[in-house]
Write a structure and sequence with these properties.
By secondary structure, this protein is mainly beta. Helices cover about 5% and strands about 60% of the residues. The strands form 4 sheets. Strands 3-4-5-6-7-8-9-14-15-17-18-20-21-22 form a 14-stranded antiparallel β-barrel. It is elongated, with a radius of gyration of 23 Å. It starts with a strand and ends with a strand.
Length: about 400
Amino acid sequence: MARINSKHIKMKRIFLSLTFCIPILLTAQNTTNSPGSMFGLGELSTGEGGQFAGFGGAGIALQYASFLNTANPASLTGLTEQRFVFDAGIMGAYKSYTQTGISNNSIVGNLNNLSIGCRIIPRWYGAVFLAPVSSVGYAITLDQEIEGTSGSTISSFFEGAGYLSKIGLSNAFLISKNLSLGINLSYVTGTITQSETQGSATIEESSYKHAFHADFGIQYKLPITRDKYVMLGATYGYSQHLTQDNELTASSSSSSETIEKSQKSYNQYLPQFIGMGVSYNSLRWIATADYKYVDWSRMKSSQSIISFANQHQLAAGVAYTVNNPYKKPIKLLLGTGFSNPYIAIKKQKAQNYYISTGTNFTTRNSNVVSIGLKYNDQFNIPAGLPREKGLTLFFNISFSERTYRAKLQ
């Protein structure tokens, strides 16, 4: 009589969980309530989460046995042989926006990452992942003066919602004992809807965007001693045009008539980027730093006051194992980072900084639970621009299961 090992049942449940979560992630990606998300692709996902959410966003040179690191696909070669790793995370954020003494606060939350990976054959590793790319969410009322009148105004209500997310396949290849190469193949898709209402009249623009994209990674390990090494990492992604299907709808609450037509689209692109990272690793200590350059020069805006700025992103973090590194290790993490926004208003922009901390601990069966906390704020804020700050909580769990073949008895 044939009997399937119980481990197969657990892995089947993991695959069913991933399948169940796909439509949730793809339909519930709004993770912002920011006026700044009105422009460009919206508020960009920082890519944080997973076991190292407290690392300040650094990850290009990180590689571990139970860590699915899509920031650098080459890192998959560090996965333990004959094990599946299932990674899922959620986030919640409190955000505050202040301009000319007026504050707006909001709480948002959603799934943050979802992936599953393993070694396919010797020297070839793979993973399937789902992740947010950007999010749009705002509701603003503005009083505008009517031309030709003596101070008369009319109120306009602006509202936007939507997201871009990506589903992808990571492949990594162990070229030699210390050299790994990787590639992320992803499909980016989502719909962003923006509307303006004056009185009874509403104009709504809906844009469905999609594109195939690939980015690449490399990691090289420099051994120091048996338990210490330095990891070097680099990533590259090319600029990719986003195909857009735009529709304009005009309607009025005082009339049943609705007008729909196709809308001209301005060129929008996923940006080109290049990143470099280095990490020092020992039994108790991890220290890492990343630099990433993001080129937005191909992006165009329909708003004359909006331009797009190339980004310089710097992140660094440290981790310390407080107990026995070989038996259910507990890590404490601390990180920081700086970057500039990719959107400039009248060629002016603030500077962003953030501080993060977190912990992760290993449970039975090599499962890892992770908690991260990040505070973000701005400095050098030009007059008239809003100040954005917030506190984000990350929660992540990584399941690790051995792979077995069914046994016939």
